[in-house]
Amino acid sequence: MGTLTEEIFSRRLGRDVHAGEIVVAPVDYAMAHDVTGPLAIEAFRHLEVPLWDPERVILVFDHILPANTVASAGLHKLVRDFATEYGVTHVFQEGICHQLMVEKGFIRPGGIVVGADSHSTTYGALGCFAAGFGSTDIAVTFATGRTWFRVPETIRINLRGALPPGIFPKDLALQVIRRLGAEGANYLAVEWGGEAVEAMSVDERLTLANLTVDFGGKAGLCEPDEQTRIYLGDAEVADLHPVAPEYRSVVEVDAQTLEPQIACPPAIDNVQDLSTVEGTQLDEVFVGSCANGRIEDLAIVAGYFEGRQVHPRTRTIVVPASKQIYMEALARGYIQTFMEAGALVMNAGCGPCLGRQHGVLGPGERALSTSNRNYAGRMGSPQAEIYLANPAVAAVSALAGAITDPRGFN
Amino acid sequence: MARIFKFGDGISTDAIIPGRYNVTTDATALGKACFIEARPDFAASVQPGDVIVGGRNFGCGSSREHAPMAIKAAGIQAVVARSFARIFYRNAINIGLPVIQCDAIYDAIEDGDPVSIDIHSGGIAVNGKMFQGETPGPVAVAIMEAGTLIDLIKTRGWAAIEEVS
Q1: pTM of the model
Q2: Which of A78, A142, A391, B49 gets the most CB atoms within 10 Å of its CB?
Q3: Burial category of B1 from C-beta neighbours within 10 Å (exposed 0-12, middle 13-18, buried 19 and up)
Q4: Which domain holds residue B12?
């Protein structure tokens, strides 16, 4: 009985669990990456116990890949040495941790997964309860296979109608953030539902679940359905539905009346209709990230770039979210299209999103990104400005050198 | 006497410790880089025992535990805020940085005001007025009593949390 979250915890613990309860629950997997992993490993070593299960610990190099300084190379080595010492076999350097968690089959509907990264909410797109934690919490999970949760209440968000041309899941998420504010779901779970979500691919749902943490959500879940079964290639996906749920609140969003939404600097909830900022000149456009670096996103961008050139003012950087996506984009000719259009294509990983490697912004520069964070200093200089948008807006804005509406673009 | 460093709403972990400065596990290095871009004089001017008072959603953004580590290593005794982002709050408690949620204090204080805090009771005295922080949850209390989450789990295991849940 209850919300998706209550259903998942009740099944896992074998008793009725209700929002507000504090529980200690076993998890399926615990993930850490090259920035949060080193602190988790150091905290784990302080516990002086064996690793819980080397098969259930996932380590990913993605935030700084390949290492760009002696300091980052040292942290990578710390993680590699730990993996070798404890026999951790799931060690990846082929994309963003969140994309790999989904692609590599670690995420199942009804599961519970923890990650040492805030965007671990992404896995909720498959009906898994997944939340981000800091390194110390993950260290304790490395040691015990468990963590403690206060089972959260849930905000239900119903996305109504069909998405009109030029409007994407990113716009729906930004519209929700605009309405609820940057801490609108703090400590709460979010259920994404309604006709628009039912019509979405898993790739699109991953964008919604990803952005859930950017308005504070602890987890962002979609009901598993036929799309989930197709994506996982498994007809045996367990039925999981809210059963007589009691929601903290219910939010209705009409997809059909939206125009493209832009999160303007310096806050994720400073969201405007595109028309408000149309024509703003750009020094950089970044296509990628755990929000919008998947093959469907690259397909949208390639569609606009075909036979065109990006504006000379606007350096354009494309970073596929994973090797699998990169190779699919190669096979479909997208990479050639990006390069012929004048874009830089970087190796799969987090790319310029966090301002620590290729694509750093200088003082006074202005970027438009398909990622999920626009805090001052996020992508480089604190005097740089970051606008967040959907992949179609990113594509046409790169071509025009300024923020541009993809609807009617030719 | 301890002084207040006042910050606004939505202070992100990117502001507390930018991604270019957290490529280390060394707390001292993190402390020196705390607020290095958002408030460049911060690390040099904090005296041990000083207090941060923040607005809403303090510590939003990434899960980087480097953020509370940097604040603690800079010498800050406690962070008081109108509200905290979930992961930052949990991280701070886990590493032994006291965090106190208190809404009423924010508009009653200025940057630089002298302050005294009772971490255990959540009482904050400033400008001749007393403010009472919200009572933390039972797990947070258990961790604070042990010092850190690692100390709690190492000495008592999950039983320590199961018995307060």
Answers
A1: 0.97
A2: A142
A3: exposed
A4: 4-134
